[in-house]
Amino acid sequence: MGIRGLARLAGAGGIALLAGLGAGAAGAEEFDFSTGVDIMLRQQTTVHALQFLTVTKEIGGGFHLGQSVYSAAWGDAGGLFIGGFEGFRRFTFSDTTSVDIGGFVGGGGGAAVVLGDGLMTKAQVTLNQAFAEGFEAHLGIGWTRVTGSAINTPVLSFGLSRRLDVALAPGHTGPRPASGIELSSAAGLARAYVPIASTRRGGGSTLKPMGLVGGEFTMRTPGIDNVEAYVSAVGAAYNEGAGYAEWLAGPRFYTRPFLNERLRGFADVGIGFAGGGTVDTGGGLVLAASAG
Fold first, then answer.
1. How far is CA 252 from CA 14, 26, 150, 164, 266, in A?
2. Measuring CA to CA, which residue among 246, 209, 210, 248 is closest to residue 82?
3. Cα–Cα distance between 23 and 25 in angstroms, integer?
4. Is the peptide bond between 195 and the residue preceding it cis, with omega within 30 degrees of 0?
5. How far apart are CA 140 and CA 23, in angstroms?
6. Which residues lie closer than 8 Å to 41 by C-beta, 6 or more apart?
7. 58-111: pLDDT as tens digits
């Protein structure tokens, strides 16, 4: 790998946005899994549309929170991807029709499109129409801005979502979902990377520290409390590394609770892919280890 000696700070724990989401709830919880495309109405770069994958959950009062990943889908910008937080307030007008008002914030880049910070923000209004049990079609209008790039445009969004039951850990006693998987937490991540003797893509100057934002979710097998699996995605949002983003997945191990059962230690390992911008990751394979 081209990037060497990468110190990871504020790593796997992150900033808990939905930590322990639904912990102790009885039975499975409902999540909305969505996919679709945002068509950019201004063609300011080689990106003409973004494809998205989103997972959200209602947290009460019509508010929904979750995480999204966006990637280039149309144009000439393969390798551009951005991950972060999605949130909206839903206003229901009938059993089948509703409107969402909200947005997205995250980081990333790639494909030589994002040459600056890499922070993406989007505000959007979306019309939702149920057409089958658990399914909804979505039509939205919004505005997307990616700092450090020329992207600053209205977008037209088309999407499809499916509501599924997922069991939440720990301690629920209701029926298990068919998969037998429990979602134990969803969290936001803020990371600071301090490269050690790593050069930028193309050689020459030394890679400087960079800040990243994104999110992760963890899953557990019922009855096993000290081991879980995690999947995380973060992208550059500050300082060096514009266009860099990474995916990691692996096991995480916990100690028994201590200090009046308020704290637990952890250690994890991960494997994934990363790259983009001036960060040289060679073929893209990344191995990681964390403790805290």
1. 14, 25, 39, 25, 7
2. 246
3. 6
4. no
5. 32
6. 153, 154, 155, 156
7. 999 999 999 998 877 787 775 677 889 999 999 999 989 999 999 999 988 776
